[in-house]
Amino acid sequence: MPVHDLNPARTDLPVVIVGAGQAGLSASWYLCRAGIEHVVLERNVRFHAWKNQRWDSFCLVTPNWQCKLPGFAYAGDDPTGFMLKDQIVDYVEAFADSFDAPLREGVTVTRVVQDHDGRFEVDTDAGLYRSDHVIVASGGYDRPVTPPFAADLEPSIAQLHTRDYHRPGDVPEGRCLVVGTGQSGVQLMEDLRIAGRDVALAVGPAPRSPRMYRGRDATDWLHEMGHYAITIDQTPDPKATEAKTNHYMSGRDGGHEIDLRRFALDGLPLYGSVTGMEGTRITFAPDLERNLDDADRSYVGIREMIDAHIEKNGIDAPEEPPFEKVWRPETETTEIDAADEGITSVLWCIGFRPDYGWLQVDCLDATGRPVHKRGVCDAEGMYFLGLGWLNTWGSGRFLGVGEDAGHVARVIRERLGTQRPDRRFA
């Protein structure tokens, strides 16, 4: 992979971009077209997370047609399919190769401060940069989340996080307790079961979605209905929206929905949310049935939205039978002994947190979340890209990240006084 090094003496630039994933390189694409000089700094290699922090069977959960990086919409022969990990890497690499980004790989940003003139000093392990604008596109997946009580679990029981898992062989023999039912948790549970491994699942409050409904993928219906064009400011509670867990379903083997009740019928042990660990003792909240009900409520709600859209517009679509709960827990298990249950490992799938410890600019709230309006901060010259719900549902995905990058690039262009046709930022 080529590394597009700048002249080392040229470290005073209009824009510095931190991170060379799809968000950072989308911003670079727009800045290159506008003739705005910049550098993209990446501590690893471009698209490091796609290459090294996804499991082998990983695939998209949204259809390929939603991949719309700037000037590089999906053009393959399976728009309604779901790209596998290696295909995703090929797609983003081809996007990066489609233009000449001023990229420096293996450069870690260690500190960003704003001086009294309003300019930024960007300290790195390869020297100091100064710039008028900084785009933070480092993503929100720096620190895997594990609860403090995980440290009290019997040391002989292996603990892994989503980022550590690549294939079933990474998990010791014996039963694996998968914790969390977001998109990663349910897919890794299924990955292990397909491999014939013994699995149990701690069910959290994540919502679920239909896959195919009334003849089309549910995401196709929602896109047609304008659901993905809704901005975070249009939602009833923007803070709650920003914190929402994604609906779970799968793109594996052509795509399917995941009904945990059916897995339970097939022998998968289900528990509620994990509340504590001590030695081999693991405790759970008595919330399994509530969490299953809440996930189904989301599932049924999406179906009802689609039904209403079909009826309102007189669309000819096949009917579907009503949803039925095929299983419910007779009791709620709130405590187990891992040794008695044969549990030899715990796979944590409860998310990540960003690490902005290097960012010493007044642009974060008390919880460490960026404060911005569609990526543009009150601290003039500071921007964020690639975060979930930066503006719309698609902001953290291939669907919307390019539009947000175009918006930020347009703001920068206007602030720099660069005269370029608006069509470059369409």
Automatic annotation (TrEMBL):
The keyword Ribonucleoprotein does not apply. The keyword Oxidoreductase applies. It comes from the Bacteria. One of its GO terms (molecular function) is monooxygenase activity. InterPro entries: Auxin_biosynth/cation_transpt, CHP04046_FMN-dependent, FAD/NAD-bd_sf. Keywords: Oxidoreductase. PANTHER family: FLAVIN-BINDING MONOOXYGENASE-LIKE PROTEIN (AFU_ORTHOLOGUE AFUA_4G09220), FLAVIN-CONTAINING MONOOXYGENASE. This is MSMEG_0569 family flavin-dependent oxidoreductase. It comes from Thalassococcus profundi.
